[in-house]
Amino acid sequence: MRIAALDYGTQRIGIAVANTEVGIAFPAAVLPNDLEQVARWLQQEGVQQVVIGAPYMLWGERGAQLQTVEAFAEQLRQRLGIPVELYDERLTTMEAERRLREGELPRKKREAVVDAVAAAILLDAYLRAQKRNKPR
After folding, report:
1. Tens digit of each residue's pLDDT (9 = 90 or more) over 56-73
2. Which end of the chain is more exposed for a tag (fewer CB within 10 A), N or C?
3. Cα–Cα distance between 7 and 17 in angstroms, integer?
4. Residue 101, phi then psi, degrees to nearest 5
5. pLDDT-based confidence at 3, cuts 50/70/90?
6. Chain segment 16-51, per-residue pLDDT in tens
């Protein structure tokens, strides 16, 4: 199954994709925060499930932006008719920035891809959790 993760931001949305059979997440795109554009991209890519990063606070409380993300998830669910769920995204952007700095990518290039890399980290964590929880 083709699955995508979204790193939701007020300006941009980072997207990563994976096939659940392989289980490896890849950064795929960074799009403007526009529901129709994101939905079209997901449809064109044949995505069958979407995971959106839920911005919880470090101590586990609901973040201020969580309500906005929940509304976006519901709109996307209605628009696409596929499963859309939220998954804890704490520290994914910080981890993405760290990895990109370690790769010595220039700052401008890091800024262009950090959201997609954060989405890939989120998707990787989600896939690992699904694998751990899967009955054998």
Report:
1. 877 777 877 899 999 999
2. C
3. 12
4. -65, -40
5. very high
6. 999 988 888 999 999 999 999 999 999 999 999 999
The pair of three-digit structure tokens given for residue 22, joined into one six-digit string? 């392989």
What is the C-alpha separation between 31 and 116, in angstroms, rounded? 9
What strands lie across the sheet with 26-32, from one edge to the other? Answer: 26-32, 12-19, 2-8, 49-54, 84-88
C-alpha distance from residue 119 to each of 15, 96, 107, 135 (Å): 6, 9, 19, 26
Instruction: Write b or e for each residue in 54-67: b if 16 or more Cβ atoms lie within 10 A of its Cβ, otherwise e.
Output: bbeeeeeeeeeebe
DSSP 62: B
Per domain, the residue ranges of the chain are 2-133
- The CATH class that applies to domain 2-133 reads alpha beta
What is the pTM for the complete model shown?
Answer: 0.88
Evaluate whether 65 touches 54 at the Cβ level (below 8 Å): no
Q: How many other CB atoms are found less than 10 A from the CB of residue 118?
A: 29
Query: Which CA distances in Å does 128 have to 14, 81, 112, 122?
Result: 20, 25, 26, 10
